[in-house]
Amino acid sequence: MYESSRNMASTALKRLLTEYKELTLNAPEGITAALIAGPEGTPYEGGIFPAVLKFPTDYPLSPPTMKFTCKMFHPNIYPDGMVCISILHPPGDDPNMYESSSERWSPVQSVEKILLSVVSMLAEPNDESGANIEACKIGEVIVKNLIKLLEIPLERHLDCNYVLNNYID
Q1: pLDDT tens digits, 102-157
Q2: Most buried among 42, 48, 55, 108, by the most CB within 10 A?
Q3: Domain 2-130 bears CATH identifier 3.10.110.10
């Protein structure tokens, strides 16, 4: 039993060293180690967000976890900084039947794919699968009110009192 665990840890370490070497030689734009640059055109633009990835001893069979070490307000990031994204969910079928097994972790995934997925998540949150309910609610209110505002005839946009009294919750 001990030897089996030791071999799994050794395999995980070899894989991580290979991925680390690849990431340091060919880092994707906007990612330096676990410092993630906020994507352009998002509320995170201009920010640098540190995060920690923790790898299980049976990696790559099981996914790592990812946690931002700074305060983050985002629908798919728990208040404690843990990231909620499909690629970090265990392999197999989703017990809640929300995501397909192809979206979840598999051993062919890599650290680079995780980091790129997180950058994409920052740019395009998934409000339907929220980890931070408050962030989801704010996103819903903004979208709902934006839709209402788009329905107002242009001349009414100039009447701020009309807009505030009739279209903003």
Answers
A1: 888 999 999 889 999 999 999 888 877 788 888 878 776 665 665 565 555 544 44
A2: 55
A3: yes
- Identify whether the C-beta of residue 76 lies closer than 8 Å to the C-beta of residue 84: yes
Active site residue 84: yes
- CB of 148 within 8 A of CB of 164? no
- Which of 70, 84, 136, 160 is flagged as catalytic? 84
**Where in the chain are the domains?**
2-130, 132-169
* CA 74 – CA 134 distance, rounded (Å): 9
Q: Are 118 and 145 in contact (CB under 8 A)?
A: no
Instruction: Please give the angle made by the CA atoms of 123, 125 and 127, to the nearest 5 degrees.
Output: 160
The Cα 67–Cα 52 span in angstroms is: 5
Where does residue 65 fall: left (phi above 0), alpha (psi -120 to 50 degrees), or beta otherwise?
beta
- Cα separation, 25 vs 11, in Å, equals 21
